[in-house]
Amino acid sequence: MSGKQKVAAVRCAGYDQELIGKQLNLLMTAIGADTLIQPGMNVLIKPNLLSAKAPEEFTTTHPEVLRALIRYVHNRGGIVTLADSPAGRFTLDSIRRVYQKTGLRALAQEEQCSLNENLTSVESGLNVLSEPVPILECVAQADLIIDCCKFKSHSYTVTSGAVKNMFGVIPGLVKAQMHARLAKRESFCRFLCQLCANVKPGLCLMDAIEGMQGNGPSGGERYDGQRLLAAKDPFALDYGALKLFGVEPDWTPVHREAVKLGLVNPAEIELIALEETWESLCRSDFRLPETMKGLIQLIPSPLAALRRHFAPYPKPDPSRCLGCGECVRDCPVQAMTLTEHKAVVDRRRCIRCYCCQEVCPVHVVQIKR
């Protein structure tokens, strides 16, 4: 019997309820997850709810994937709560707006599960620069955390998957503070790995039926992935997804830091394709963000300051900017300001975290060189 971390993947051509349910059951059996959930267990499902986007905008975990997962848990006697802290402010009004727009409000009513509206946070046990890192209280109290992520490109971390999804257990604008405290990309991605290892999701499911490519995680283009993936381990799942979609894992800073921390070992991962071979299931057409293009990635790390100076920077399009101020409120280093009701970036202060692009409700923040 193999002692390797299993990552299973299967084709799934769309968000048909019956099809997703069938494929999800196959995945769970393949990775040995069928005995994880016991009757009466409090199960917290952590979707990717980046912002108030409709399911058709391929930014957030699709409600039909969550529906299949909720039913899987309910069938084993588990009690389900859906919880996340989206980008930007974390208030009752903001989280309720996200639940409504993403389709989770209706889903929770139909499937008789709870939506977390508890804004209380507790200490995680992690510290950044001697400051304690808070996480949502409901996360700390769960018997089992299921990481239900979305496969997307990401202008800062290259891709977003199971490990990055756990960043959402940190409440509200504290996430922006993490960016400010950890201004170097390697340090921030190392923290993401440490946070994920601390939270310890025990089961992971990736919605790659419709993903996002290009300048994600909110301003990219639709990627017709047609895949579902599952694993017990988030680091293994991300590695499997990268291999499946033709992205070299060592290109991604989260994977590199996970390897350094000993949280993932590719030699100990078993990639399983259901109903066909792994090779036939693989894709090679996924488009990375603009921040990965050109010679900038070849500048060695000792010249990090020079690399950051020449790195692509965010620039709002003044002709389309609404002047809503979301980017200003979410910028971790106050590099964004409103001038004559238009967002403007100070390139000298900008740390290229691209949070402004992430939270812009109308996608006017472009990547420029």
Computed over alpha carbons, the radius of gyration is 19 Å
Please tell me the total number of domains: 2
What is the assigned CATH homologous superfamily of the largest domain?
A: LarA, N-terminal domain
Strand content: 15-25%
The chain-level structural class is: alpha/beta
Structure notes:
This protein is α/β, with parallel strands linked by helices and 369 residues long. The protein has two domains: 5-289, 3-Layer(aba) Sandwich (Rossmann fold), CATH 3.40.50; 294-368, Alpha-Beta Plaits, CATH 3.30.70. The chain contains 14 helices and 16 strands. It has helices at 17-30, 63-74, 92-101, 104-111, 137-141, 162-165, 174-181, 185-199, 234-244, 253-260, 278-281, 304-310, 326-330, 355-359; strands at residues 5-11, 42-47, 79-82, 114-115, 121-128, 131-136, 144-154, 158-160, 203-213, 221-223, 227-231, 269-273, 313-316, 336-339, 342-345, 365-368. The strands form four sheets. Strands 1, 2, 3, 4, 7, 8, 9, 10, 11 and 12 form a ten-stranded mixed sheet that branches. Strands 5-6 form a two-stranded antiparallel ribbon. A two-stranded antiparallel sheet has the order 13-16. Helix 1 crosses helix 2. It is globular and about 55 Å long. The protein starts with a strand and ends with a strand. Mean pLDDT is 93; it is low at 294-300.
Furnish the topology, listing elements before pairings.
Elements lengths: L4 E7 L5 H14 L11 E6 L15 H12 L4 E4 L9 H10 L2 H8 L2 E2 L5 E8 L2 E6 H5 L2 E11 L3 E3 L1 H4 L8 H8 L3 H15 L3 E11 L7 E3 L3 E5 L2 H11 L8 H8 L8 E5 L4 H4 L22 H7 L2 E4 L9 H5 L5 E4 L2 E4 L9 H5 L5 E4 L1
Helix pairs in contact: 1-2, 8-10
